[in-house]
Amino acid sequence: MSKLLLLEDDPSLAKTLIKYLSTHHYEVDWAKDGEEALDMCFENRYDLYLFDINVPLINGIDLLVSLREADDFTPTIIISALVDIESVTKGFIAGADDYIKKPFDPEELLVRIKAKTAALKEKIKYKVFEVDVQLNTITKNGEELLMGEVQKNILIALIKNYPNPVIKDELMEFLENPTDLALRVNISKLKKNLAVEIQNVRGVGYKII
């Protein structure tokens, strides 16, 4: 089930969308203002953002700019009553993947959401890396990485779960002889060879940052 974050300050519209999308097997978290949405973005991993522009505290455009600057490239659809060219342009410049104008038919929004989440399931991007879920391959700057299966699977798991940690036991499953030392060695090699930042989350596992 894909998980979405909806930033919308109109309770009536938000509840209508959440009810509609839940019937189509989407899990939706609701943020009523930009600051709440920002906190939720850093605490959870989402497959798609749905951001209104005119919301309290931090508007949707400024929020999206901040997320992109923090290397959060989660697909984002702007939903807004602002239909002028300047507003639409600002949305795309900020990093939006799509823009839907209010009022809209929920079915149209659903079609757009399906298009974005389907693409996400096939390929996942993290900074200069891209994971092809179907082929279980990973590229860096467009070139496929030729590496051992153990380290490749660990890296793919970390990227898939970004920004959340992967439980240590899950990473252990990729090892032929699973020990804490063997896992640390593989993590160290990934950090050194690919210049990626991987953090040990005490009592949980590891996460890529």
Total separate domains? 2
Give me the side-by-side strand order of the main sheet. 2-1-3-4-5
Amino-to-carboxy terminus distance: 24 Å
CATH class of the largest domain: Alpha Beta
| Low-confidence blocks of residues | none
Helix content: 40-55%
Output the CATH homologous superfamily of the largest domain.
Answer: Response regulator
Number-wise, the strands total 12
- Strand fraction: 15-25%
CATH architecture name of the largest domain: 3-Layer(aba) Sandwich
Total number of helices: 8
Largest sheet: 5 strands, parallel
The rounded Rg comes to: 19 Å
Structural description of this entry:
This protein folds into 2 domains: 2-121, 3-Layer(aba) Sandwich (Rossmann fold), CATH 3.40.50.2300; 127-208, Arc Repressor Mutant, subunit A, CATH 1.10.10.10. It is elongated, with a radius of gyration of 19 Å. With 209 residues, it is an alpha/beta fold. It has helices at residues 11-22, 34-43, 60-69, 85-94, 106-122, 149-161, 168-172, 180-194, and strands spanning 2-7, 26-31, 48-51, 76-80, 98-101, 123-126, 129-132, 137-140, 143-144, 166-167, 198-201, 205-208. The protein starts with a strand and ends with a strand. The longest helix is centred in the middle third of the chain and has 17 residues, at 106-122. The strands form 3 sheets. Strands 2-1-3-4-5 form a 5-stranded parallel β-sheet, sandwiched between helices. It has a 4-stranded antiparallel β-sheet with strand order 6-7-8-9.
